[in-house]
């Protein structure tokens, strides 16, 4: 099964130590490749590896994010790592038959959304105040059970509602978390963007 591009990029960035990763981010803010607009300092400030991958995919799409990552690694003298990323990308592209592309896209979206929801739990719990419209949508999609929905409804504060919502998502695993992420894109798009999330291209 092909590895999603964001996962390939993340695995590559995780091979960099802290100082090297910061140098990589600095290159993203420079004119590294013709036709690729540098990312802003503000967009990468305090950005971890997950968020950096999200920003690259959002700005350059998947193919462009792969290309600029390879170029930066080459500029940094990390030729072996750049070649490995290029080779892995080609292997995965060849390993994905045309007939399975739609299924792979669905799986990639599910994995990305679930990862975002897990990584940003505390921020989402603290910053989402209009919880019931989200809970209503999840309930209508049958992603949370009747009892869980009732517990969310009677919780006294937005943070309490959000914590119960997170507990309600656990039985549904990545599929339920991904549905939550898609609802956030619709109802809390500015918050998602602020936390480094992107819609799948």
TrEMBL record:
Q: Which Gene Ontology terms of cellular component type are present? A: canonical inflammasome complex
Q: Which domain of life is it from?
A: Eukaryota
Task: Give the main location.
Answer: other
Question: Which segments constitute the Pyrin domain?
Answer: 1-91
The answer to whether UniProt assigns keyword Cytoplasm to this entry is: yes
Keywords assigned by UniProt, alphabetized: Cytoplasm, Immunity, Inflammasome, Inflammatory response, Innate immunity
Residues in domain CARD? Answer: 109-199
Where in the cell does this protein reside?
Inflammasome
Q: Name one GO biological process term.
A: regulation of apoptotic process
Name it: CARD domain-containing protein
Say which species the protein is native to. Hucho hucho
């Amino acid at each position: 099964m092909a590895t999603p591009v964001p996962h390939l990029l993340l695995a590559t960035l995780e091979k960099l130590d802290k100082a090297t990763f910061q140098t990589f981010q600095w290159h993203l803010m420079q004119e590294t490749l013709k036709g690729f607009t540098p990312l802003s300092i503000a967009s990468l400030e305090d950005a971890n590896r997950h968020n950096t991958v999200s920003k690259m995919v959002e700005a350059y799409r998947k193919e462009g994010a792969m290309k600029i990552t390879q170029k930066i690694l080459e500029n940094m003298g990390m030729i072996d790592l750049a070649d490995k990323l290029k080779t892995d990308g080609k292997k995965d592209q060849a390993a994905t038959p045309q007939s399975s592309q739609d299924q792979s896209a669905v799986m990639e979206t599910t994995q990305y959304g679930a990862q975002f929801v897990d990584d940003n739990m505390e921020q989402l719990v603290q910053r989402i105040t209009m919880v019931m419209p989200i809970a209503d949508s999840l309930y209508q999609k049958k992603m949370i059970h009747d009892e869980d929905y009732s517990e969310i409804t009677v919780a006294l504060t937005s943070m309490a509602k959000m914590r119960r919502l997170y507990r309600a998502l656990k039985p549904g695993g990545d599929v339920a978390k991904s549905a939550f992420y898609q609802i956030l894109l619709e109802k809390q798009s500015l918050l998602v963007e602020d936390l480094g999330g992107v819609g799948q291209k």
